[in-house]
Amino acid sequence: MCGITGFIDFSMNIGYNKKMVIKDMNNTLDHRGPDDKGYEIFEEDKFTIALGQARLSIIDLTSAGHQPMRYKNLTIVFNGEIYNYRELKSELLELGHEFHTDSDTEVILHCYEQWREKAVNKFIGMFAIVIYDSATNKVCVFRDRAGVKPFYYYYSDQVFIFASELKAFHKHPKFQKEIDKDSIYLFFKNVHHGYIPAPKSIFKNTFKLPPGHFLEIDLLKASVNIEKYWDVTDFYKLPKLNLSYEDAKCQTKKLLLSACEYRMIADVPVGVFLSGGYDSTLVTSLLQTNRSEKLKTFTIGFNEGNNEAPFAKETAKYLGTDHTEYICTTKEAQEIIPTLPFFYDEPFADSSAIPTILVSQLASKSVSVVLSADAGDEVFSGYESYKFLERNLNKINNLPKWLKPIIGDVGSCFISGIPETLDHGKMKHKISSFINAIRSFDKTAQSKIVFDNMYSLPGSFLEKIFIDKNFIVRENLDVNSFKEPLEVAMAIDYKSYLQNDILTKVDRATMSVSIEGREPLVDHRIIEFAAQLPLEYKWDGKTSKKILKDIVHDYIPKEMMNRPKTGFSLPIYSWLRGDLSYLIDEYLSPKALEQSGLFNVPWVSEQVNLFKLNKLHYQPFIWKLLMFQMWYNKWMK
């Protein structure tokens, strides 16, 4: 919908042009909101507040939807959509409220007046909301339950700065862009993916408001308080629903259809990303079956790497959608890479951002809103890693108790002989995690031990990457609240990979071309319901995402969907040794690596040279290193 920016300065003598700063901050988010710009400044004795918004018009295209929007003592800037705003509006009308626009923004203001902080529990949508209440001298910030919409904030030196993207902070004179070293550690820690998990950010004193949280600022005390209003783990703790499989399937389908239909609400054209996989086929099937007009669907394909375009085309033809397919050239994909540090303005190393930007560019020629079917794997147990985890934990727990310590001791002797290299170290770390799991007699603790270590580099190797060895990393997931080990893995992925990687990727990619991405499968009603379903309805020991797949089979013949899961995959590493080798030479040379003062350059350079010779098995390290270096060159020089 837009980008939001703002700041609160508690100093008595500000010493900079407030109007110029908020305008400059706002202008950095042109791509998020090209249709309208707005800002307001409130100067009080103890503080000054500036609120800004760059608008992408989706609902109520008139000037009545302009932000910041005022109502009595309340002023709001808001990024996102409240899909059930019409129902909330009807409820408020019965309570005596009066409205002057057809925008969901006005409904939020009235909801806040009526129910204060509890209003957020009524919202179905994606949102980052900032409300200034001049009567109570408080500012309240709300972020949606899944974290679809971003919210960054900086608090230091008597100033609180916020924005939808970090790039806006660079326009504020009091923002100090000092790298947070713990965040760099977290970025490199994950074996496959590179992101900085909430609440951390790349910079010191800079944070992401975690999903499902609200933040309150007492303007007279200059204090900040953060509270959680929703957590997926609360629903895993509840007793499983006593439903037959068919009843569960029927209720799941109703929730999915409601979530999809809500996300079609707009005053502009809407389409769907269709890959041909189960999740996007589900969303497309539910929507196309219930409407006479053809749904617009979009797919891109590649001549290199995995190509799902033929599957998507077959699905679109079967369902009768208005389908657009584009086969991208290698050159088109490679040309996206230099733009990544601008749109992903803290280090981000998911290479599938490239095809996501390309399919967003394709969709932007026809629609202003697009649905993306993410979260099916995390919510309905779809990843291959879950199968691996379940099978191996079963093997561990079938061992006689007397044998476990013996295997643990023998295994410890075995791994002590594994060489201390990056590639062998990954294997050593994984085996070590299984040994620790064997020694544990608690199934949920075993699950977290194994799952965490499957995807983490060992600390000994992370220490080799950096000059500074002192890192503080805290895990905050309480595994004791789970009844099933597999649910531990699902919750970890939901709270980390989905929120910090996938949803970030889609938000920045769609916003890069000024279209709004919507995520029906992260509707909190679906997530809450799925968490309470018996595990065997999602994973029965043979079929992943069982209930979701069975719903798809009501629309699409099973034989059409019977193919291996692929996803977007590009030959990034062969490119980096070929056409794009200049990026390695420019950004990963010893001289370039020395600039940040972070890296153990001799050791890192050795890994780069092994990569050039195609002798480094753990290649994702090179992509993460390149993405960090390109980010550093863009934002720190």
UniProtKB/TrEMBL annotation:
One CC-aspect GO term: cytosol
Sites marked Important for beta-aspartyl-AMP intermediate formation: D374
> EC number(s) per UniProt?
6.3.5.4
Catalysed transformations (reactions): L-aspartate + L-glutamine + ATP + H2O = L-asparagine + L-glutamate + AMP + diphosphate + H(+)
Keywords (A to Z) from UniProt: Amino-acid biosynthesis, Asparagine biosynthesis, ATP-binding, Glutamine amidotransferase, Nucleotide-binding
Give the pathway. Answer: Amino-acid biosynthesis; L-asparagine biosynthesis; L-asparagine from L-aspartate (L-Gln route): step 1/1
Per UniProt, where does ATP bind?
Answer: I300
Q: Where does L-glutamine bind?
A: D104
What is one Gene Ontology biological process annotated in the Swiss-Prot or TrEMBL record? asparagine biosynthetic process
Q: Which residues form the active site?
A: C2
InterPro entries per record: Asn_synth_AEB, Asn_synthase, ASN_synthetase/amidase, AsnB_N, GATase_2_dom, Ntn_hydrolases_N, Rossmann-like_a/b/a_fold
Top-tier EC class? ligase
Organism domain of life:
Bacteria
Residue intervals of the Glutamine amidotransferase type-2 domain: 2-220
* GO MF, one example: ATP binding
NCBIfam families (alphabetical):
asn_synth_AEB (TIGR01536)
Family from the record? Belongs to the asparagine synthetase family.
Q: Could you identify this protein by its name?
A: asparagine synthase (glutamine-hydrolyzing)
Q: What organism, scientifically named, is this protein from? A: Flavobacterium haoranii
